[in-house]
Task: inverse folding
């Protein structure tokens, strides 16, 4: 059993190391001359044909044990290590937190910057100290939709993009992370929403009853901890531009086209008949124009060969058709006609090469590719309301909006959240996406849109609207006065997934929205700092990692090992070890640091077998001899925040 366990741990660690080597350009290894980091060096040699192909960094504060220096020099020579000794300025009077923080962290930051390392292999084990295993990244699979200035699949998000956060604000993406997994993900289906897939340890802003009290709490909860009936948070989104956009310039949107002519007021084509109207170059985004845009998104199409745009309606929607004809003439200087095409169907035809190019560019070509214009998030409340109203009325159903375009469905849902309205998004068996106004937003919808909706209340007593968000005291998320909706979870499943997963770091608010649901992110910033209060998913096996802008990623090949595993592996493989681990005069060092912050423990273990036997019965913590662990209960978090680990 022991041999099989060690074999599995070894195989996983070697896989992590090889994946890291394949994905990063400039890797280094941290070596403290302790048992864990020496084991990592041995694993690297085993992974790469007896060689350590990466530079090995020793952070030397000048006060390590003489035995450690001797062990370092001998093993570096024996294993042909490319050793980088990063020296720090030592102040003899400091110890504990100050020693590790001032002496080691600054030296590590300096050497990483000097050599431009993009990844660092470390020997952290999650059992050694609770905070040491909290390096967290990578959460959502390809295709997960992120609500932002535009709605994008997570794999298409770029650094600098703006995404919505739990406060309803748009904040910039600072970092992107990616890795491949072959594991079970958690599928969470919230009421009024589509299922989202997430790695099991990613944290989601949720409201759950505290065990034994029944009282609700607001907390960041691992996806694996959530239960059916727990509530997730959908924030109301802010109107970023209260003034909106006054106009658009068609020639700037279309760019250069052969045969196009423009002057200050008009745009026309060389091929146009001499008596053809010249279209307007500048289009004011009036309520009528925004309604027209919405009508096109709902029922419009184009024919470039025929240089025509068309709107199709039922015959009882003649008033809408007449409104379109009038708006095209008044606002675009384009003539159009209403034609009866079937017994119950009519169509508006507008002959305009300009609009046959402009409208597909703004709104997508083909039903499956329809979307709101790229500037929809810059519209004023009135402009956005008329745009969505045009979509809704044009679709012909007061109760719901239906489309085959997934992006459009989510954009409409996002827009409704900007108007303070909660809606349901569901996918039908025939592949259509249906947006329905949630019962508790029915009055607001009718008030704003003047559209009567007969949607019944769904789960009336399980959905709550709030005007403020007060996260629990131990969650470092900003308080929000924008409010939102607490939505119950209707279904939770485990689904096996093989492929890439992604995470983001978002400026300031450290949260983002996946399909409208608030989730957390996991930053270690370019200044090397890690916020231990803000950590979401505990992704122990972050191999094959990719960080796509300034900073570095830490590779953890030993996270799944425990202390006994390491010693059993050292025994099995005959790995050289620092002699300080063995007892002398009734004392030995169980965890190694420098002379200022490490003390021995009582022990008679003089060899590896004795150590393994001792560990099976001891109640003393592994880091009991490390002074920095004793200063304050959160000291390891502070050290790690500075980049110490």
Result:
């Amino acid at each position: 059993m022991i041999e099989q366990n060690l074999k599995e741990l070894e195989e996983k660690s070697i896989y992590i190391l090889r994946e890291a080597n394949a994905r990063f350009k400039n890797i280094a290894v941290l070596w403290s001359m302790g048992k864990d980091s020496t084991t990592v060096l041995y694993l690297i040699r085993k992974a790469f044909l007896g060689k350590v192909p990466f530079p090995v960094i020793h952070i030397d504060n000048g006060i390590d044990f003489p035995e450690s220096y001797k062990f370092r020099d001998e093993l570096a020579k024996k294993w042909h290590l490319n050793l980088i000794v990063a020296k720090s300025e030592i102040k003899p009077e400091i110890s504990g937190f100050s020693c590790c923080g001032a002496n080691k962290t600054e030296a590590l930051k300096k050497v990483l910057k000097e050599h431009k390392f993009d990844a660092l292999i470390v020997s952290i084990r999650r059992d050694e100290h609770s905070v040491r295993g909290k390096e967290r990244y990578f959460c959502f699979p390809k295709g997960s939709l992120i609500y932002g200035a535009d709605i994008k699949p997570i794999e298409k998000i770029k650094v600098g993009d703006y995404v919505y956060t739990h406060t309803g604000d748009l904040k910039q993406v600072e970092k992107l992370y990616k890795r491949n997994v072959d594991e079970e993900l958690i599928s969470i289906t919230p009421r009024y929403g589509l299922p989202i897939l997430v790695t099991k340890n990613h944290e989601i802003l949720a409201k759950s009853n505290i065990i034994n009290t029944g009282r609700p709490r607001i907390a960041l909860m691992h996806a694996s901890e959530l239960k059916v009936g727990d509530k997730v948070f959908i924030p109301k989104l802010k109107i970023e531009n209260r003034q909106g956009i006054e106009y658009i310039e068609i020639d700037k949107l279309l760019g250069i086209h052969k045969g196009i002519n423009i002057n200050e007021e008009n745009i026309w084509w060389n091929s146009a008949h001499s008596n053809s109207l010249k279209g307007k170059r500048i289009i004011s985004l009036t309520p009528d124009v925004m309604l027209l845009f919405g009508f096109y998104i709902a029922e419009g199409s184009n024919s470039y060969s025929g240089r025509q745009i068309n709107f199709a309606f039922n015959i009882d929607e003649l008033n809408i058709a007449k409104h379109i004809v009038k708006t095209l003439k008044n606002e675009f200087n384009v003539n159009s006609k209403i034609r009866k095409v079937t017994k119950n169907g009519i169509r508006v035809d507008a002959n305009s090469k300009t609009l046959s190019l402009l409208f597909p560019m703004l709104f997508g070509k083909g039903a499956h590719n329809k979307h709101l214009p790229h500037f929809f998030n810059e519209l004023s409340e009135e402009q956005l309301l008329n745009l969505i109203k045009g979509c809704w009325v044009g679709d012909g159903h007061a109760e719901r909006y239906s489309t085959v375009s997934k992006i459009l469905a989510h954009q409409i849902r996002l827009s409704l959240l900007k108007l303070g309205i909660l809606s349901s998004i569901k996918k039908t068996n025939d592949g259509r996406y249906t947006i329905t106004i949630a019962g508790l937003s029915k009055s607001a919808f009718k008030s704003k849109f003047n559209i009567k909706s007969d949607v019944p209340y769904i789960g009336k007593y399980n959905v709550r609207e709030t005007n403020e968000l007060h996260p629990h005291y131990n969650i470092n998320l900003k308080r929000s006065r924008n409010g939102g909706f607490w939505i119950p979870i209707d279904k939770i499943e485990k689904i096996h997934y093989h492929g890439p997963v992604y995470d983001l770091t978002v400026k300031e608010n450290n949260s983002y929205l996946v399909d409208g649901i608030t989730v957390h992110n996991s930053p270690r910033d370019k200044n090397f700092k890690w916020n231990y209060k803000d950590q979401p998913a505990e992704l122990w096996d972050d191999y094959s990692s990719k960080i796509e802008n300034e900073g570095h990623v830490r590779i953890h090949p030993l996270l799944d090992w425990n202390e006994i595993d390491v010693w059993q592996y050292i025994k099995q493989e005959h790995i050289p070890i620092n002699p300080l681990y063995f007892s002398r005069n009734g004392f030995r060092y169980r965890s190694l640091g420098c002379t200022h912050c490490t003390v021995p423990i009582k022990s008679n273990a003089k060899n590896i077998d004795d150590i393994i036997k001792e560990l099976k019965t001891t109640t003393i913590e592994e880091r009991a001899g490390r002074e920095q662990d004793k200063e304050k209960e959160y000291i390891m978090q502070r050290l790690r925040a500075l980049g110490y680990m």
